[in-house]
Amino acid sequence: MIAKAEGKFLRVSPTKVSQVMDLIRNKDAKEAVSILFHLNKRPKEYLIKILKSAIANAKVKGFNVEQLYISKIICNVGPSWKRFKAAAFGRAQPILKRTAHIKIELDLKE
């Protein structure tokens, strides 16, 4: 692991994030940013921000961006916001607004 970055308590479902994560797993850092940039899914905004942060962390340590690839990318379940929606006959239906913790680690290509 050369550099890492993580985002916590992000207001997006972990299942939706994992679909987008599969597209960039084990790709070059520059290639992953371009793939995410042209994607039409909401989690891409969070992933681009975290990936650019990890790249910046590697630059500060003195590594070349062209040699970096995504060695590890994980999305864990965060706490859910509990809300209620009005239902028939004065009842309430629960709504779970899910959150995610995303962690990206970069490493050098061999």
TrEMBL record:
Coiled coil: none annotated. GO terms for biological process: translation. GO terms for molecular function: rRNA binding; structural constituent of ribosome. Keywords: Ribonucleoprotein, Ribosomal protein, RNA-binding, rRNA-binding. InterPro entries: Ribosomal_uL22 (IPR001063), Ribosomal_uL22_bac/chlpt-type (IPR005727), Ribosomal_uL22_bac/org-type (IPR047867), Ribosomal_uL22_sf (IPR036394). Belongs to the universal ribosomal protein uL22 family. The globular domain of the protein is located near the polypeptide exit tunnel on the outside of the subunit, while an extended beta-hairpin is found that lines the wall of the exit tunnel in the center of the 70S ribosome. This protein binds specifically to 23S rRNA; its binding is stimulated by other ribosomal proteins, e.g., L4, L17, and L20. It is important during the early stages of 50S assembly. It makes multiple contacts with different domains of the 23S rRNA in the assembled 50S subunit and ribosome. Part of the 50S ribosomal subunit. This is Large ribosomal subunit protein uL22.
